[in-house]
Structures are given as C-alpha cells and as structure tokens.
Fold this protein.
Amino acid sequence: MAGDTYKKVRPGERLRIPASAYNAFVDAARAHQTGQKNAIRDTPRSTLQAGVVAIRNDSGSAVPRFGVLGVDGSLFQPSDSLEAFQRRIALIGSTPNEAIHVGRFVVTLEPIAAGALGAACAAGLCLVQLIVLQDDGRDRPYAEIINGVTAGLLAGDRGAASILWKEPGVGIKWAVVRLGAYTPRSVFPVTLTVSTTAYGDATTPTAHTYNVADLDGVTLATAINPAASPHQWKRPSIGRYAPATFGHAHWEPNATADAGLVITWVNETPELEACGS
C-alpha cells in the first residue's frame, strides 16, 4: 500500500520529501503568489494609496509627470456599468479651464499620453511646479490652475492647493503642495482708482465705481461698484460722498479673477456741497 504523501514528520525523524509532495508545495506556492498579484491588480488604486486615482488624458497632448489636468467627470457611469464604477475611481481630464476647473484638478504622477490612462493625485501631498510671479517677501500660501496650462499651478492668495514648501524666487519653482485645501477668507488691503463718478445729493445715493489693485499695483478687477452684490460696502441711502482711494477685500474660496473678489469696505467720505453766497 502506498504511503501517505502528505504524512507529517515527528520530531527526531529523518525528513524525506516525496517528489509528489514537493511538486504539490511548489504548485501551492505559485498559486498563492499569483493570487496575491491578482488581488493587487483587482484592488482599486484609490484603496492602495489614498487620493490616487486613474485619469484619462483628453487634453489632446501628452502631459508630463507632475502636470495638471482639470477634471471633467467620471470615466465610468453607474448607469453604464455599476461594477466598473464601483471597482475603481477613474476620471476624465482635460486642459485646465478657469471657467469650469477651479478647485477641480489633479496632478499627474506619471507621464500620460493623449488619450491614455494614468495615475494622478486628487487629494493629499504631491510635488508640482509653480509659476511664481512675484517675490516681494509676502507669503502667498495657495495655488490654483492656470487657464490653458498643464505644466503647473499659479501661486497666489487663493486656490485648492496649500503650498507647504516651495523654492525661493520667481519663475517656475518646485513645490510640495497639499491638494484639497480650503482657502479661508483672508482680508487684504486694496487700492482704488475711480472708473466712473456718480456723486450723490440730498435725494440720490452715491454710486462711484472703481478699478481695484493690490498693493503691488496688480489689477484685480475693473469698474467695481463696492455697494453692489456680491460686495459688502454699505453706502448711505443718500448724500454726496467723495471717491475712495483705499479699501479692504477678500477672495471667495475656489474662485478666480474678479468673479471671486469681494470688496468689504472702502474709505468713501462725506463731502459738503458748496453753499451759495
């Protein structure tokens, strides 16, 4: 009668491994190794590393590693295939557009050819190149997309990326950023130059409009009425007021250009009307 191929060995006994048993062990090890690889391959990338997603590059051009793509939507739709949708987060990306992609972008973690899928960081820490326009000693702690640019982000006072570190100076600089930031409403000073004048009187409110710039002279908005929504300056209902030269403002989170600028106060002052002799 043939012996038990898988008979256990007692302590002190000489170890003899039949060929059939050895081959079975090898087959089992190979099957286990293959199973591990398949498990990794079938596991959604987002669970392997939080914040990492797949994205298809629909920009029309190759995007380098540490490039930027705006997010247009999900590659898989639940209505088409719920299984594919639930298996892995996969997005559609295109060239950043300020009209639709502010706060909705990823940083690529590998070069992605046009039309191809690749890995990208959607949330958390990553490296990226920044366009730094000024180095005046004032900290600009956030970064946001640049319209039409996939090479990097723009450093500024608002944005969906917090700058944790960057190279000093102006130009194109490497940085460590955290995606998914919330830009607080940080109030900052602005200078005002008159765009149109509309002095009030005893029956009419003042309605001056202004061109708005930061203290570096960079124009932030033009022809702004600080008393009109979404701005918050409260003028008296009537009276003659001299134009302002200075004010306070903040940026609404995840907004660009003058669409996100809110004037909170200006130094318009009452002006006495000349009296007849």
About this structure: The first helix runs from residue 19 to 42. The longest strand covers residues 124-132. Helices lie at 19-42, 45-48, 82-87.
